[in-house]
Amino acid sequence: MQLSKAEEQVMQFLWKRKKAFMKDLLEDFPMPKPATTTVATLLKRMRDKGFVDYTTIGKSREYFPLVKKTDYFSKHVNGLIKNFFNNSASQFASFFTQETDLSEDELKALRKIIDAEIKSKKND
Question: Per the CB 3.0–4.6 Å rule, which of 2, 27, 92, 95 could disulfide with 85?
């Protein structure tokens, strides 16, 4: 299941806050702020999709994410690799390193990450 852009924006706020009331989420939006009913509709759809839930405190609802940011992002990256790079992570890595404006230091940092991952796979 996927989130719309507006739903993803609300999820970003929830991931950052961990828990939030409607008023907190409205504060996070840049100007012009959406209507309360719009955010309520987004939260209902997100709850129906299994991304968020809430606890009732008095007459208010405190929302919290059910999906970790890393899990959501990982699923998207894997879908991107599958759909645009013939399920080839190396094609994705090649595109990413050649078509983005990475500095030499950033490329070296990526190499360190990859080398560490290779080392950990050998030890498994």
Answer: 92
Confidence of residue 122 (pLDDT cuts 50, 70, 90): confident
SS3 state of residue 20: strand
User: How far apart are alpha carbons 89 and 73 in whole angstroms?
Assistant: 15
13's tokens:
């706020």
Tokens of 10: 């609300």
From the list 28, 61, 59, 32, the residue with the least C-alpha distance to 44 is 61
* DSSP for 53-121, written as a single string: EEEEETTEEEEEESS-HHHHHHHHHHHHHHHHSTT-HHHHHHHHHHHS---HHHHHHHHHHHHHHHHHH
Render pLDDT for 84-108 as a digit per residue (tens, 0 to 9): 888 888 888 888 888 888 898 999 9
